[in-house]
Amino acid sequence: MEYRFKPYAKTEILHGHLNLGGANPSGERIDVNSLYLERGGKPWIGVMGEYHFARDRRENWYTELCKMRAGGVTVVATYLFWIYHEEIEGEFDFSGDRDIRAFILEARRAGLDVVIRIGPWAHGECRNGGLPDWILNKPYAVRDNNPDYMNKARIWYERIFNEVQGLFYKHGGNIIGIQIENELIDNAEHIAALKKMARDIGYDVPLWTATGWNSLYGAKLPVDEVLPVFGAYPEAPWADTTEQLPLSVHYAFTKERNDSAIGVDLMNAASEDGWRLPLERYPFVTCEIGGGIQVTHHRRPVITGQDIYSLSLCKLGNGNNLIGYYMYKGGANKIGKLSTLNETRAAGYPNDYTTISYDFQAPISEFGEIREQYRLLNMLHMFVNDFGDILAPMETVLSEKDVNEKNIMALRYCMRTDGSGGFVFVNHYQRLAKLLDIKDAVINTGSVIFPKIDVKGDVSFIMPFNTELGNNMLEYATAQLLCRVGNTYVFAAIPGIAPQFRFADGAAFTAKPDRNAVREVNNIKIITLPWQEARFARKLDGRLYIGEKCDIYLFDGEIKSAHAGSYTYYEWDGCGFIKHTTERDYNQAKFTMTDCAAPFEPTEPYELEIGGGRGLVWKKLDVTTDEGFVNINIKYDCAQIYADGKLIADNFWIGRNWRVPARLLYGKECYMVLSEQRNDFYKEA
To answer: Is residue 158 helix, strand or coil?
Structure first.
């Protein structure tokens, strides 16, 4: 069957209409037009990943930032939670794990730009959305332009500025953007006032952003003053139900930017005054594509790598020109001086989250482990990092026949094109549903007809057409373009599809998916990796490496592995792959759990997440070394681990092993308490 597209119509691009943009001392500029971002005068697609510095330990920052960079992330975004830095009025703390300046400098060392999300209200599943308790006890409204609140907000902004001044892009630093507030859907005047106040204090960045989602027509934002950023999650654990949700729209191709499901736990219905955010004035950019999803007490989704990869691929096909993930690196909440710092119903918010864990099922876990979506997403990131200047100006053209998320029979596809060349996007995956196989699909872009392919199983992929590789015009490839290294172009063979290549000069071949089977076409080389091996390909410092079933990253110029023990990787030298092996001693901890009587009674507020009259079971935990992870694979509602009497880790059961680093337990007296599971939550396992 032949699959065609709707007609292509080029959009007029607006330039210079937004109060955004700026230059660094070397003269490089970051600018924004109505279709895409530009950097150094070229179209640019950044890859942004959220990592909350205060939800991790300072000694971990650089390692985790290096892992992010190896995963193709180019920008790290981070919240500053006001309650973390001024829990008691007038007592500021930007030291240790709360040192934002040190974090930004570590990001620069790792080669990452930074977007700081300065609130004042942040959400992020933090207590009070990040606002300190003391400000909520004041006799005036928060998130409002009244003088009393704005005076306190000014002090907060000034204290952050004191920490970060001199690190802005205009000074040669790596802070390229600032997000004002979060999920404020109905107060453009307040957003405008906060931006003006920040600029008056001295903040100066090319990118000023604000979350743009609302129930239907977009948040009320000051037009042309901030860049609306959007999001999409594979699930909604904040939804007030314990039933399975309808199939997600995010696994179908549409031109819809706004996800009206985000924040419905805290938002009111859309206003009826006729407001519509003029999206045609802005590029489609994101800040909250789910890198995973959080778990609430009443909803416990189980996220797979394909859930996240397919979602991000769909958004890229839909026209996303800044790929932003929330979260990319999981973390752990601190315990405050006056309270815990997690969102709870007891504190007046709609959801109960774990006291400590903010793992988020993210690409990099709370404890630094690599998850499958990290590997899959990196294939998209390598592509946009090397070919984003080609992709960014291309516009989305949808399939000839509309296909929604409920249709499990039809091929889901779209393309991004400039009218002659481009990229075809195919998503054959729907979370919590099984799509039927498609046989003998012939995709006709209007300028190129692809050969027949079968689309089977859970696959999502991108195929180039009329794409220039060196001085060669690639007519089509039924393989996914990954990256370029010199005159070598690297592809991944799509599962179930023969990697066929055809060039405009008539050269054609079917590639062997093998890193050593290099094909030469005129003045270029083509490498086609098996899909499973491509998951471990990394482009680091301009060079191509492939880990042998290990996730490698660059740490101060040295190749390291996120896996324990010895590791092997291959380095492309322009002619072939050189094998490298690094030997490391590794002594995996042996782990025992022993039934025991309660060594103590958890006190307020820790008993809240295991309480409610549930039965409790205690275990004594022992490990023999501090290396590796231990697996906790028994059933419970909530589990808490105490080391020397201090709560150090917790978890809601989702049906997967809970993996805990042995280093958290080694050399300490450790106990775990498990609360009784009841039928009072949504579960997928």
So the answer is: helix
Residue 270 has phi, psi (to 5 degrees) of -65, 150
* Conformational region of residue 9, where left means phi above 0, alpha means psi within -120 to 50, and beta covers everything else: beta
Beta strands in 357-421 (DSSP E): 357-358, 395-398, 413-417
Characterise 249 by phi-psi region: left (phi > 0), alpha (psi -120 to 50), beta (else): alpha
**What are the distances in angstroms from CA 486 to CA 278, 451, 489, 505, 544?**
41, 29, 8, 22, 10
Q: In CATH, what is the architecture of 36-385?
A: Alpha-Beta Barrel (3.20)
Residues 6+ apart with CB under 8 A from 41: 29
Q: pLDDT tens digit string along 478-511?
A: 999 999 999 999 999 999 999 999 999 999 999 9
Q: Where in the chain is the domain with CATH 3.20.20.80?
A: 36-385
DSSP assignments along 101-146, one per residue: HHHHHHHHHHT-EEEEE--SS--TTBGGGG--HHHHTSSS-SSS--
Q: Which phi and psi angles does 231 have, rounded to 5°?
A: -150, 175
Residue range(s) in the chain whose domain bears CATH number 2.102.20.10? 393-535
The class (CATH top level) of 393-535 is: mainly beta
CA distance 398 to 416: 9
CB 425 within 8 A of CB 415: yes
Q: How far apart are CA 343 and CA 346, in angstroms?
A: 9
Lowest mean pLDDT among 202-216, 374-388, 461-475, 583-597: 202-216
